[in-house]
Design a protein that fits this description.
The complex is a heterotrimer. By secondary structure, chain A is mainly β. Chain A has no helices and eight strands. Chain C is an alpha+beta fold. The chains are: A mainly beta, B alpha/beta, C alpha+beta.
Chain lengths: 112, 398, 229
């Protein structure tokens, strides 16, 4: 099972968005094309959280915001032992939360 | 032609742990505000509209239509009534709507009540409830929380501007010290700066919650309600105390997904909201004598103090080190104890901040009074800064 | 004057006690500068301590009623020589009782954690006392593991999740009914730096004050309560 994450590109002006918007932030356009959002990225900031919400039975989870070469910044879970701002990482897709009947998938950033 | 609006009554029971139901908690605050305004309850009360600010009463306390229920319980029928939800900025949003109701000419007297009862659920469920403000696809399913984003934001600000963990702790300690003079504050305990930052056991008593934020850098979980009575200035003579004028209101929104913010270390919505409020009030940051800035996390007080124009960008922590934001300093911030020590029942906070400024401008802030305060600013921060409401209050010139 | 047969019966009803090393008292500086002294108490102290525990036996909120009632019976059982190898650690601030933890040795190598109860809220005293009793089992009594159950969601989070306790549902815990979790030596070594603090020794002056074991006048859990009112 492999799912992919996508960015949404305005068909009028080419502006990239993630997550999904109904209206382009640059030109006001309403048509978007899905393009893959994956691969190499740079760590913008990170945290290690010890107080997790209901349903996450771990002592802590790491999260980060990364920057892709196409200019998009996204947040996700971080599986890196010693995170550092500026680190070069790989955006993977994995189970971020076990659900009932259906798991949630999303970005998990890992060391290259 | 817009009418002028003033605040003539305030009610602020102690925040902390409620032993009564959510609607009752709101009623107690409302009654205090009505009494403070000198409004006789029962027939002829004169209240045209009630706004109830709450983020979670539906989710946490499983109640809806509460504003309507409140009107009846307080016997304010047939006053108009609605609930207002804007996350942690519900309180200031409700005040904004109260202002608009009067300024438009539709109402003369509005009661605004803000309340939240968070301690009915476990810490887990509370964290999850607050996290529902986050983006439903890009953030919430990851287990991301408000503290997680506050932690990431703090790391960036520390990296860019040299803010230290001790700067955050210093702001928290200042607010706890202020709260000792506020009988309505949830936490009546002052942490010692050297203990929470340097003691060998600091990782035990002040552990990381969302690195680099520690336990004492973030506000507690509180129950509470607060209420104010607004009126058209032209009818203010009806009431017991001189009105405090709502001179300016500003509000702005920003991206929902925090990763999409244009400049990750900026709180753009705070800046725009404050600028709009200054413009409406025809004032500048230098005219403000006292401020309540939303400090759910200590880093927010520091950055907000810059974004509202009190200090240059990147120097808010230096100002705090100098003592500029203490009572008696250049621009006292969070004389009430802030969210950090006063507590943060989400829906009540915006109203509570405004009440503190009203008290300061009235000269009623015993033990924490800013001498001669004539203009005050509040910033109520919704989501993680994607919807911010700023309010400026001024004292009427004699 | 007891009949010889009753005295002989009493001897039979008493468990054989293992020699347990004393827990050396320590203190942890709290955020507000208060010094929390954690000290092992003796059997003779139990009737006095129960007076601090008992008011909470009727507070349903946050599971105080069940925890206080069970601590009451556990300490009483220890006092009346009917429980084997039980201990009790007391937390005091300025001599006032602020928290209680207890447990016992089941075997030389395995311990049974009983309860953790915070009387003075707001300083995370429970977490510090829990760590102290784990320290007692694993670092002083030389045990290999401690069996633990939780009665509240908060307890579950603080112990099962934060210490990453090993699930061992097939093993029965005396407090019964729910799956047992175990703190092994390996898990303790992994987590103790972030969980277990404190300075030793406690000065003579601080010990004298701690030994006063002053009963709290009021309880934030019981609005309106005043001792001996």
């Amino acid at each position: 099972m492999s799912e992919s994450m996508v960015a949404y590109q305005c068909t009028s002006c080419g502006e990239l968005h993630h997550p999904k918007h109904f209206v382009c932030r640059k030109c006001g356009g309403r048509q978007f094309e899905e393009i893959p959002l994956e691969g190499a990225c740079t760590l913008v900031t990170w945290t290690r959280v010890y107080n997790l919400p209901e349903g996450y039975m771990k002592p802590f989870l790491c999260f980060g915001i990364v920057s892709f070469p196409n200019g998009l910044n996204v947040s996700g879970q971080l599986e890196v032992d010693e995170p550092e701002i500026g680190a070069k990482l790989q955006a993977t897709v994995g189970v971020i939360k076990e659900g009932v009947g259906q798991d949630y998938v999303g970005f998990i950033f890992k060391e290259i | 032609m817009r009418r002028e609006v003033g605040i003539v009554g305030v009610g602020h029971p102690r925040f902390g742990k409620s032993s009564v139901s959510f609607p009752d908690m709101c009623c107690y605050a409302a009654m205090e505000a009505l009494d403070d305004a000198g409004i006789k309850t029962g027939e002829g009360h004169g209240v045209d509209q009630v706004f109830l600010a709450t983020m979670g009463a539906q989710m946490l306390n499983r109640q809806s239509g509460i504003a309507s229920g409140l009107v009846d319980t307080l016997n304010l029928r047939p006053a108009m009534a609605e609930s207002v939800e804007n996350g942690p900025a519900s309180g200031a949003s409700a005040v904004k709507l109260g202002y608009m109701a009067i300024a438009s000419g539709m109402c003369d007297v509005v009661l605004v009540v803000g309340g939240e009862m968070m301690r009915v659920v476990s810490g887990w469920e509370g964290t999850d409830f607050v996290a529902t403000m986050l983006h439903p696809d890009a953030e919430y399913p990851y287990g991301l929380t408000l503290p997680a984003f506050a932690g990431m934001f703090t790391r960036l600000v520390m990296n860019q501007y040299g803010v230290l963990e001790s700067d955050l702790a210093r702001v928290a300690v200042k607010n706890h010290e202020n709260a000792m003079h506020n009988p309505a504050a949830h936490i009546q305990l002052v942490p010692k700066l050297e203990v929470i930052t340097e003691d060998e056991d600091k990782d035990i008593i002040n552990p990381y919650v969302a690195e680099p934020l520690r336990l004492y850098d973030m506000c507690p979980v509180s129950d509470g309600a607060a209420a104010i009575v607004l009126c058209a200035m032209e009818v203010a003579d009806r009431f017991a105390k001189k009105p405090i004028r709502i001179a300016g209101i500003g509000q702005a929104t920003d991206t929902h997904a925090i990763a999409e913010r244009e400049v990750p270390t900026d709180l753009l919505a705070v800046r725009i909201a404050a600028q709009k409020a200054y413009k409406m009030a025809n004032l500048t940051p230098q005219d403000i004598d006292v401020a309540e800035l939303h400090d759910a996390f200590a880093i927010l007080e520091i950055v907000e103090s810059e974004e509202v124009g009190f200090f240059p960008r990147g120097e808010g922590h230096l100002a705090a080190r100098r003592g500029d934001t203490k009572i008696g300093g250049k621009i006292p911030i969070n004389t009430s104890g802030g969210l950090k020590a006063k507590g943060h029942p989400l829906g009540a906070t915006g109203v509570s901040q405004i009440i503190e400024i009203v008290r300061q401008l009235r000269g009623e802030a015993d033990g924490r009074q800013v001498e001669g305060a004539k203009a005050g600013l509040t910033v109520n921060f919704g989501g993680f800064g994607n919807n911010v409401v700023a309010v400026i209050l001024t004292k009427e010139v004699e | 004057m007891k009949l010889a047969i009753i005295e002989k019966m009493e001897a039979q009803l008493r468990p054989v006690e293992t020699l347990m090393v004393d827990y050396p008292a320590k203190y942890i500086t709290q955020a507000n500068g208060d010094k929390l002294v954690i000290r092992q108490v003796n059997r003779e102290d139990v009737p006095h301590i129960l007076q601090a525990v008992q008011p909470l036996m009727t507070v349903a909120k946050d599971f105080y009623d069940i925890v206080a009632s069970r601590i009451n019976s556990e300490l009483l059982g220890w006092y009346r020589y009917r429980v084997k190898d039980e201990y009790c650690l007391l937390g005091t601030i300025d001599g006032v009782i602020v928290g209680v933890v207890n447990g016992r040795m089941i075997t030389e190598k395995a311990g049974m954690s009983y309860h953790t109860m915070t009387l003075r809220q707001g300083l995370r005293i429970g977490a510090q006392l829990f760590a102290a009793k784990m320290e007692y089992h694993l670092d002083y009594l030389g045990q290999d593991e401690v069996w633990i159950v939780a009665e509240s969601p908060n307890g579950f989070k603080r112990w099962m999740i934060e210490y990453e306790l090993e699930s061992r549902p097939e093993q029965w815990h005396e407090l019964g009914g729910v799956p047992t979790y175990v703190l092994t030596k390996a898990l303790w070594e992994k987590h103790k730096a972030k969980k277990c603090g404190g300075r030793r020794p406690v000065s003579d002056e601080m010990l004298i004050i701690a030994k006063q074991m002053i009963l709290p006048e009021t309880y934030s859990q019981i609005p309106g309560y005043v001792r001996n009112a």
